[in-house]
Amino acid sequence: MVQHLNTALQHLATAFVPAVLGIMLHEVAHGWAAYKMGDPTAERSGWLTLNPLKHIDPLGLCVFVFTALAAPFTIGWAKPVPIQPRLFRNPRAGMILVSLAGPLANFLTACLCALVVKLALNLLTADFPGSEALFFIAGSAREGMFINVALAWFNLMPVPPLDGSHILAGLLPAAVARMYASLARLGMVIVILLVAAGLLRRVLVPLMIVSIEFIDALFNLGQRM
User: Fold this and answer.
1) DSSP 184
2) What band does 124 get if pLDDT is binned at 50, 70 and 90?
3) Is 27 assigned a catalytic role?
4) For residue range 42-89, what is the model confidence (pLDDT) as tens digits?
5) Which residues does residue 175 pair with via DSSP β-bridges, in sequence order?
6) What is the tens place of the pLDDT at every residue in 152-201?
7) Is 90 exceeded by the pLDDT of residue 222?
8) How far apart are the first and last CA of the chain?
9) Among 27, 43, 132, 143, which one carries the catalytic annotation?
10) What residue ranges do the domains of the chain occupy?
11) Which DSSP helix (H) or strand (E) runs through 131?
12) What region, left, alpha or beta, does residue 56 occupy, with left being phi > 0 and alpha being psi -120 to 50 degrees?
C-alpha cells in the first residue's frame, strides 16, 4: 500500500509541470490564433499569458490530481480561452486554424520536452553534478512527451466540442455543420461510451506510439531511454 502510494505521488510529481504547461499552452495557442484571425477577445481579456493562475480550472486540476494518483490514465483541463468566431475575417477558415493551433502547440511542447530529455541525458553522460535532479528532470520531460502527445490526439478527435469537431465542421456544408455542432451537449457522454467500449484506447494508443517513436527518432532518443 505504501509502495503504491509512493509510486502514485512520484507520478504526480513528474507529470504535474509538463501537464500544466501543455494544457496552458494549448489554450494560449487557441487565443493567439484567434487574435491573428481578427478576434481580439482573448488578448484584451488578458488570456494570452503564461501565468498558470489565469488558466487553471479548479475542477480540471482536481480531476488531474485524482487521475494521476489513482487511475491508469491522467486527464485534466484548463479554463477555455474566450473566442468569438464571428469576429474572424473568415469565420469558417478561422475556426479551423484556431482549432488546429491547440493540438499543434501540444505537439511542439512534446518536442520541447524531448529536447529537455536529450540535454538532461547528455549532462548525465558527462557526469554533470546533480544526477538525482537530472534524473527527475529527464523523467518529468519524458512524461511530458506522452502527456502532450495524448492531449493533441485526444483533442483532434471529431467529437463535439473537441477541436477535431470544429475542424471537421469547417469542412462540412453549413447546414450539416450546424447539425453536427448540436451534438456538443452529448460530447462527454460520447467520450465516456468510447472509453467504456475500448475504442478510444484502440485508436489513440497506436497514434501516440507512432508519434512518440517519431519524436524519439527526431531527437535521437530511441537508444538512450
Assistant:
1) G
2) confident
3) yes
4) 999 999 998 888 888 888 788 777 777 776 667 777 888 999 999 999
5) none
6) 998 999 988 889 999 999 898 888 888 888 887 887 788 778 777 777 78
7) no
8) 28
9) 27
10) 2-218
11) helix 131-155
12) beta
Q: In this structure, which amino acid lies at residue 195? A: V
Query: Grid coordinates standing for 132?
Result: 538525482
What's the rounded Cα separation, in Å, for the pair 21 and 23? 6
Cβ neighbours of residue 224 closer than 8 Å, sequence gap 6 or more: 118, 121
pLDDT at 23 over 80: yes
Q: Residue 90 is placed in which grid cell?
A: 473568415
Look-up of cell digits 512520484: 10
Report pLDDT for 84.
Answer: 93
Three-class DSSP category at 78: strand
Q: Hey, what's the cell of 208? A: 501516440
Residues sharing a CB contact under 8 Å with residue 219, sequence separation 6 or more, in sequence order: 111, 114, 115, 117, 118
The amino acid sitting at 212 is: I
Choose among 142, 143, 148, 146: nearest CA to 115.
Answer: 142
Query: Cell numbers of 218, please?
Result: 527526431
Q: Is 60 exposed, middle or buried (0-12, 13-18, 19+ CB in 10 A)?
A: middle
